[in-house]
Specification:
365 residues, alpha+beta, seven-stranded mixed β-sheet, four-stranded antiparallel β-sheet, binds iron/sulfur cluster
């Protein structure tokens, strides 16, 4: 473990830039903290905090001078690797009528992301399992992932909607980063998680860790975990959900749910998508496009002339039983990393931890 004084943080940014990385980091845009191009440390959200509750997100001023004293906003790493909409391939017909297939390819600089939280690193590992495991990896996802340099910042200010401690995915980042930082008032405890991170550390003006800094950091992480009020039960969620498919709670939640899909858009692990072809009017070129989809659209369960999940009850049930149940079979764990985004960004404040608790209270275990 080493110490990077706050006034030397710019050296970290310039070293990454010198290695050819484009930088993105947290900034306030449209009233929320999201990733955006980062040129200088003074663009980071200093003196700000977030107030989150079911269906509500606000940025407020604070007297805290740190840059990372807030919890995640709506944007996870997901759109940086699994982009919301992209052309996968293009078909072109030449004058002789022969079809030519081409990949648009990726012409993107390596990306360094500053300020990644533990829950989003866990979510990225799940997305890697989905898009990169098996014989054929999704080429654009894999290329973007391989070009990522991740600078994690341990989370010391979880929101009221966070529950990563109960899923085992935070607030301390344990793996999946190139560098991990713990921000204190005067600087950062810093450690490397990969060879690329170690090589970068050798270029930084690091100092020995000041007395008491590690103890202070450990206490902040403990406090961040203890402060989380929500949680998912650690016992067999898969059995609970699949054992209660006809529970009346699904009807009750469907009366509130708007089927808007916000929860799936902000969820860092949701990977459902739809593919479609877009021919030109002349009919000589067609683009094959992949775009995010959601359990909550009618088209997502359209099969052979029928919409299988024709009502909101079935769509919400599909989302929760897959996320918290079916993922155990597919990926060996729940698909929820406790980031709380679906709770905050649901326009009617539906809280999946409450829904699970209701099933647990009077359902079949
Ligand atoms: S289900 Fe909700 S809390 Fe869990 S990872 Fe997705 S958005 Fe975050
Ligand atoms: S649970 Fe909330 S965010 Fe998700 S579809 Fe229903 S209303 Fe929209």
């Amino acid at each position: 473990m080493d110490w990077l004084p706050r006034k030397q943080f710019e050296v970290l940014l310039s070293s990454l830039r010198a290695r050819g990385h484009r930088l993105v980091g947290p900034q306030v845009r449209d009233g929320a903290i999201v990733y955006d191009s980062l040129e200088r440390a003074d663009q980071l959200p200093q003196g700000l905090r977030d107030a989150q509750s079911p269906g509500s997100y606000r940025i407020e001023s604070s007297d805290n001078s740190r840059w990372f004293a807030w919890a995640n906003g709506p944007q996870a790493l997901k759109p940086l690797t699994f982009v919301p909409r992209e052309t996968l391939w293009r078909a072109r017909r030449d004058d002789q009528g022969t079809l030519h297939f081409e990949s648009p390819g990726l012409d993107e600089a390596p990306l360094a992301v500053i300020g990644v939280r533990a829950c989003d690193l866990a979510a990225l590992r799940l997305q890697e399992q989905h898009f990169m495991a098996g014989e054929v990896a999704a080429p654009n996802f894999a290329a973007r992932r391989q070009r990522l340099f991740l600078v994690a910042v341990h989370c010391t200010h979880p929101a009221d909607t966070c529950f990563c401690a109960s899923t085992g995915d935070g607030p301390h980042a344990e793996a999946g980063y190139d560098l991990a930082l713990h921000e204190l008032d005067d600087g950062f405890l810093v450690e490397a998680g990969t060879e690329a991170g170690t090589a970068l550390l050798e270029e930084l003006p690091l100092q020995p860790v000041p007395d008491g800094a590690q103890e202070k950091a450990d206490e902040e992480i403990d406090q961040a975990a203890r402060s989380q009020q929500r949680g998912l039960p650690s016992h067999d969620l898969r059995g609970l959900l699949f054992g209660n498919l006809e529970h009346p709670r699904w009807e009750a939640v469907a009366e509130r749910c708007l089927s808007c899909g916000n929860c799936t858009a902000v969820c860092p692990t949701c990977f459902c998508h739809a593919e479609s072809d877009h021919p030109t009017l002349a009919g000589d070129v067609t683009e094959h496009v992949r775009a995010w989809d959601s359990c909550f659209t009618a088209g997502h369960s359209y099969l052979a002339g029928f919409v299988l999940r024709e009502d909101t009850r079935k769509r919400y049930r599909q989302w929760l039983t897959h996320k918290l149940g079916g993922w155990h079979d597919q990926y060996g764990r729940s698909g929820c990393v406790g980031c709380g985004r679906c709770v905050t960004w649901c326009p009617v404040g539906i809280d999946l931890t409450e829904e699970v608790a209701a099933l647990q209270e009077d359902g079949h275990d």
